[in-house]
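Before the break, one more example. Copy the sequence into your notebook; we will annotate it together after we see the structure.
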Amino acid sequence: MILTKTILCLILGFLSSLVLGFLVVPFFKKCHMYQSISKTISKRHLLKEGTPTMGGVIFIISTLFIIIFLFLNKNIHFNLNLFIILCVFILYAFLGFIDDLLKIRFHNNKGLSIILKFFIQVIIGIVLFLISGNNTVLNFYLFSIDLKYLYGLLILFMLVGSSNAVNITDGLDGLAAGLCTISFISYGIIAFNSPFILGYEEIGIFCFTLAGALIGFLFFNFYPAKIFMGDLGSLSLGATLASVSILLKCELSLVIIGLVFIIETLSSFIQIISIRYFNKKIFLKSPLHHHFEMLGFKETDIIKLFYLVSLICSLITLIYILVH
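Here is what the structure looks like once it is written out:
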């Protein structure tokens, strides 16, 4: 039954996203929903000027539509964990929507200020921590440690860090969407093998539905992209990944499954620190995918390499979890 639901969710997510994409892409082009391309990035990226953004609405609306459809048909049950995931998914998407809208309106890449965006992300994280209950134990199957009040800070760090990590990684056509597809499929498998978690089937169904919707979105987002996901998509995906790992009580799995996102973020952080304090570049360009571009790698080759690394990391995590 679970296998049937999994396949059904993937197909429904894919088809709904594909259909919606054929409607959204030309509509956004007609409405000039364009984001300015930074002049500091390579000349190849300047050719992408005029590509519509906010494509995240494609997989977000598709996923929500399928989840509501399944609920109304009594194929899934509404519970606290599903509520938390949907809240994170929607609230971070709304935050990204405001950010994208400002960039489109004023024809620049500034959007919301970093401080304001961080403040809103923290507020969302605090509210969701209070809703989620009093859990203070950091888990990874055979490993666990009671962090007490520090657990709340960990949740905030994971939500804010993961949302921004996916946002930073979203710099090549199809890169962030493909990596998130692999990650959500991995967490879907973990969820279906976690019967001790409240609403584990619903979490798994959500993950596979979103993965299917992302595959449909990749039809429009893979190189050469017809539409970008925007902050609306990247912030929502990153925060949702973190919330799923938290609710499945395998928080540390995000370090391995999301290793590419972490490396991308660290490369940007290291570059900033190196330039600011040592007036020296470690990478030709940050984040890391731009460094590979500057070395002469093709965009599609970089994407395939990062997909492969993500797939290997996810398989290692799944083998460890399923064995234990």
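The longest helix spans residues 2-30. The beta strands are 137-140, 143-146. Try to locate both features in your own notes.
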